Amino acid sequence: MTRQEVLEKLSGIFQEEFDDDTIRLTDATTADDIEDWDSLAHINLIVAIENAFNMKFKMREVTGMKNVGEMADIILERSK
Amino acid sequence: MALFSPMDHSVFSGERVMYLPSFTQLKKYAKRRDPAVPPACKLAVIGDCATQHLAAAIAGYAQYAGLDLAVFDADYDQLDAQIMDPGSELYAFGADWVLLYMSTEKLLRAFYNAPAGSRERFAEDTFQRIDTYWRTLSGRCPAGILQFDLVSMDDGCFGSYALKTDASFVFQLRKLKYLLAEGCRQNKNVYPVDINAVQLACGRDRFHDSRLYYAAKLPISLDMLPAVAKRTVDVILAQRGQVKKCVVTDLDNTLWGGVVGDDGLEGIQIGELGSGPAFTHLQMWLKALKERGILLAVCSKNNEDAAREPFEKHPDMVLRMEDLSIFVANWEDKASNIRYIQKMLNIGLDAMVFLDDSPFERERVRQALPEVTVPELPEDPALYVPFLQELDLFETASYSREDAGRTKQYRDEAVRREMLQNSLSYDDYLAWLEMRAYAGPFDPFHYPRIAQLTQRSNQFNLRTVRYTEAQIQALAADPAHITRYYTLRDKLGDYGLISVAVLDRQDEDTLFISQWLMSCRVLKRTMEEFILNDLVRLARDQGCARLVGEYIKTPKNAMVADIYERMGFRRDGAFFVADTERWERRKTLIQEDAQ
């Protein structure tokens, strides 16, 4: 899977979670850029992403990812 | 309700599958409720952990299950603040139910923090705290309390030795679970929600995601929240009277292996033959359901004689004819047969569960009768019982020993209705029943039942006078009154005491019917005729020329507004009069019993 494909698939998951078809993710997207991305939504996203990519985040990653780019790095590394 | 149809996200993996919406889907269901519209009922969720996801899942599942429920989430760790403060949002919300959730993870922490010498008292101390919550809540608001059961855990500190060591967490947790169950048993207002059963079915690592707990204090994984929400809403639905009352089951390859019409009585698999043990287990489970008050009915495409034979003759059958409230074996469409069973038993279609191994029959019944619950039975009979157990279909809000006798009552009623359908005329049917009634003055043995009837009867009740047991006793002792109770039985069963009348002496010539009520169960049996014949005869024996009745209208007793006139009394102003010397006996098909 290419990085672009991962970002597209992630965008779909975010659109579903926030009920907003206009969301387009980039490496630099953070929680500050999406209004409803609070700690609750974050948990929902983590679980949805894990199910979609068939991988698991580590605990420090659950709370420590700084932006969507880091998220994509981890997904690319684990969903080989 | 589209429960258990194979369109939603499956919660349990493997062949044994319960279909439930996913957490994401439930969140969308939750949004369908318009917050501006007053809800049918309200639930407040309070816990010692993060409860927002749980509250959202319950709100969504309620919508999915057709229950108009508004949910208030008290936010993280608010037990003390919300319950102990009389001015809290919880009390302002006006909940019908309050859900209390104590997570085992939090208990474990409290246990480890407790001084070593006090750990042996941990279960008792914790129960005291919970009991204080219950009492405080019950004292301050009328809400019912839903108490989540504690989820099991092995902290691994003592190994198996924990089970004989009261200083271990495992020991104290088991003890606390017992204390909670005992507390629920004694507090009528507290209802357990067995979420431990969900963990038992799916396993610890699917139920709990330790990363989510550490990161967000979320003790239940998102994947398992739908099952927990279902369990919770199931309890609320049972409280609201939505319970299953009857299991309708197919026979061949459902209740036994093989086809009795082809394989013969000796060839069907039950007992130790072939897959027999799986079917034996299912039959034992159904029998246990019957013993707790669920009716069993058979609906099979078979020749009736062949279908009955195993119940009557096969030595390994667990279920026998007397366990079944109704038996239907023919070649008609199953949906029509289920409708027939529903009419015979006089219960709602939504109170019925239909078991059948054939996907064709299941789908046919689902389409024709969408109210009936039709579980998607697994292909392998070995999975029937564990699958059905997981569905949690048989919630109840009460249990009494009398429930066990219900099959007999419904069987009697079904036979009566069947006779009614088949017999030439209604009078023939009544004659066939060979009804017998007993009439007598109030006696101490019957005081409680008489008082109960005066308090409960609303429809067939002429003056709606309510009496306590003490008042009934006083009436019986006072010679100014003539008291009368009536019992009825027929060849199919005994109805017990079903009617009460009191006559007051008004003057030398006149008796006044100051109380007359009857149970609606015995309407249209010519019991009214029997009773008035009896009362007129009593008046005549007392030398009274007039028996006077009165009807006092209430919102519920319209059915007896004209009963005196129908029975031949003449109207006299606001009253109805029978002249006892000229009384024409009303026709009744009930014989009088000497005792």
Tag the structure with descriptive keywords.
heterodimer, A: 80 residues, mainly alpha, globular, B: 595 residues, alpha/beta, eight-stranded mixed β-sheet, five-stranded parallel β-sheet, 17 strands, 39% helix, 17% strand, disordered N terminus
Please explain how this structure is put together:
The complex is a heterodimer of chains A (80) and B (595). With 80 residues, chain A is an all-alpha fold. Chain A is built from 4 helices and no strands. The longest helix of chain A has 16 residues, at 3-18. Chain B has 595 residues and is of the alpha/beta class. Chain A binds chain B through residues 16-17, 39-40, 42-44, 46-48, 57-59, 62-63, and chain B through 23-24, 27, 52-53, 210-212, 214-216, 218, 221-223.
Instruction: Write down how many β-strands of chain A occur, each being a DSSP E stretch of 2 or more residues.
Output: 0
Number of helices of chain A: 4
Major sheet summary line of chain B: 8 strands, mixed
Overall residue-averaged pLDDT value of chain B: 90
The shape of chain B, in one word, is globular
**Helicity level of chain B, as a percent range?**
25-40%
Total of helices of chain B = 23
**Which stretches of chain A are low in confidence, meaning pLDDT under 50 for 5 or more residues running?**
none
Spans where pLDDT lies below 50 across 5 or more residues of chain B:
1-17
Pairing-aware structural class of the strands and helices of chain B? alpha/beta
Q: What's the N-to-C terminus distance of chain B?
A: 51 Å
Question: What percent of residues of chain A are in strands?
Answer: under 5%
Work out the helicity level of chain A. Answer: 55-70%
Most extensive interface:
A-B, 15 and 15 residues
Sequence of strands across the biggest β-sheet of chain B: 15-16-14-13-12-11-10-17
Distance between the termini of chain A: 8 Å
